[in-house]
Design goal:
39% helix; alpha/beta; seven-stranded parallel β-sheet; 6 helices; Rossmann fold
């Protein structure tokens, strides 16, 4: 149960058709009294979200968004504003690590860097959360507690980088972390009840991690339900003092 949400709370999960995103939507509907859970994705009519809509009725609202299209993000914010002027929780639950069809793969050395692949990482991992923050801050800025959380990755930590490589993913996640920190500083001036968090879900059994799972130590590959539950626990426990922080699934701070 999320103690920080009540029957008047509104939640938005962007990337709701992904493994962690869908699990977040399911748990928010099942384990919180939230009035509305908006499930935004490029494919809102997929079977999993459709089943949740049928099970939870108007509490679950699948809604379309293309995170690579600024006008689509703006329309999403307007759609939410038409239903309620307040959001209490916004989670960016998407990311790009590889796309073989487009020739995007984690780089092992400098010679592997490709400009278009790097830009694709930045568009998804860094620019999309920034644009969502730009258009949705007004919905989060009200008298109640609100949280803006983005799924980051431990490999985006500059201090913790001991292996190198993965240039596009690492640097785009580091840029996302800087945006989260920057937004938190601005919110202290103009949206003082908003908590901004960068969250590492751990290595989770999704399509993003699938090609690399053989290297994961036993017991360190998490089910999406487990990761989603731990992320919601971290969000529920967060205070204004945590805003701008980077935290792992277990609540441990991650160095920048």
């Amino acid at each position: 149960m999320m103690n920080t949400l009540d029957g008047d709370s509104n939640v938005l999960v962007v990337g709701a058709s992904g493994g962690i995103g869908a699990a977040l939507v399911e748990q928010l509907l099942a384990d919180s009294p939230a009035r509305r859970v908006w499930a935004a994705s490029r494919t809102p009519q997929g079977p999993r979200l459709t089943a949740l809509r049928e099970a939870y009725g108007e509490r679950c609202v699948p809604v379309p968004v293309d995170i690579l299209d600024e006008s689509s993000i703006a329309r999403l914010a307007e759609t939410l504003r038409g239903d309620s002027p307040r959001l209490h929780l916004l989670i960016n639950a998407f990311g790009l690590l590889h796309d073989e069809a487009r020739g995007i793969w984690p780089e092992k050395r400098l010679e592997d860097i490709n400009a278009e692949a790097m830009l694709a990482n930045y568009r998804v991992n860094a620019l999309a959360p920034a644009l969502i923050g730009r258009y949705c801050l007004g919905l989060l800025n009200h008298a109640d507690r609100a949280v803006f959380a983005s799924l980051s990755a431990r490999v985006g930590s500059i201090t913790d980088n001991r292996l190198g490589g993965w240039y596009g993913y690492r640097t785009s996640k580091a840029a996302q972390n800087m945006f989260t920190r920057d937004m938190a500083i601005e919110c202290r001036r103009r949206a003082r009840r908003v908590i901004c968090l960068a969250l590492h879900p751990g290595t989770t059994d999704t399509g993003l991690s699938e090609p690399f799972q053989k290297r994961v130590p036993e017991g360190k590959l998490f089910r999406t339900e487990f990761a989603a539950g731990k992320l919601l626990e971290r969000i529920d426990a967060a205070s204004l003092e945590d805003s701008g922080g980077f935290f792992a699934w277990d609540g441990a701070p991650i160095p920048w």
